[in-house]
């Protein structure tokens, strides 16, 4: 019996493929889902160190499920829930991508982008040294800089060590609160 090349390819594709199987699903708890307070598009007004007001636009937070495979040919899938929002400061050419994820490697982070970059280049994390094994609600702290005091905030560090941003201060109730720059400038969310 003679097989045509098309039937051989079809047989190989059918027998060589597997059915996707969801092995793990990691979801966010209610607190983690609400960390990013931007439920709608918002205009946020910041004041810089020269008392100049700077406008930032936020996107509403979105929730997605990211399906990750163990490898390119794997049929095993891990689902990871993420919530994200973006803040854009057009006047100072800065975009912040804020992400809360159920991924164990990086629970809460902020990536930065300028028009000179083709992708997010600076990764700000709550800890650059190690994975912090505690719930996000237990990682809030206090922060003081330039005569400003902040309570119950997250303080993000530059894990790439090549940013002009020193830290990013973020609160659950107000979102982005404060950005001190390495050259002494800063942006502070208006009250």
Description:
The protein is 8% helix and 47% strand. The protein is built from two helices and 13 strands; from the N terminus they run αβαββββββββββββ. By secondary structure, the protein is mainly β.
The H/E string reads: HEHEEEEEEEEEEEE
Biggest β-sheet strands, sense, barrel:
10 strands, antiparallel, barrel
Strand order of the largest sheet: 2-3-5-6-7-8-10-11-12-13
Number of E-type strands:
13
Strand content: over 45%
Q: Give the end-to-end Cα distance, rounded to a whole number of Å.
A: 81 Å
- Provide the structure class: mainly beta
Global mean pLDDT: 85
Total DSSP helices: 2
Compute the gyration radius: what is it?
Answer: 22 Å
- Coarse shape: elongated
Unreliable stretches (pLDDT < 50, length at least 5) are none
Give the helix proportion (percent range): under 10%
């Amino acid at each position: 019996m003679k097989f045509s090349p098309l039937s051989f390819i079809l047989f190989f594709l059918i027998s060589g493929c597997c059915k996707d199987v969801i092995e793990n699903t990691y979801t966010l708890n209610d607190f983690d889902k609400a960390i990013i307070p931007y439920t709608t598009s918002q205009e946020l007004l910041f004041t810089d160190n020269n008392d100049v007001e700077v406008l930032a636009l936020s996107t509403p937070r979105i929730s997605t499920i990211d399906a990750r495979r163990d490898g390119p040919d794997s049929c095993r899938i891990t689902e990871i829930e993420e919530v994200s929002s973006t803040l854009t400061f057009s006047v100072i050419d800065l975009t912040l991508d804020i992400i809360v994820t159920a991924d164990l490697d990086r629970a809460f982070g902020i990536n930065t982008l300028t028009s000179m970059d083709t992708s997010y280049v600076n990764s700000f994390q709550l800890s650059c040294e190690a994975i912090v094994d505690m719930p996000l609600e237990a990682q809030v702290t206090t922060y003081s800089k330039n005569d400003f005091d902040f309570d119950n905030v997250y303080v993000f560090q530059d894990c790439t060590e090549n940013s002009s941003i020193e830290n990013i201060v973020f609160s659950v109730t107000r979102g982005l609160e404060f950005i001190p720059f390495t050259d002494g400038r800063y942006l502070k969310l208006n009250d």
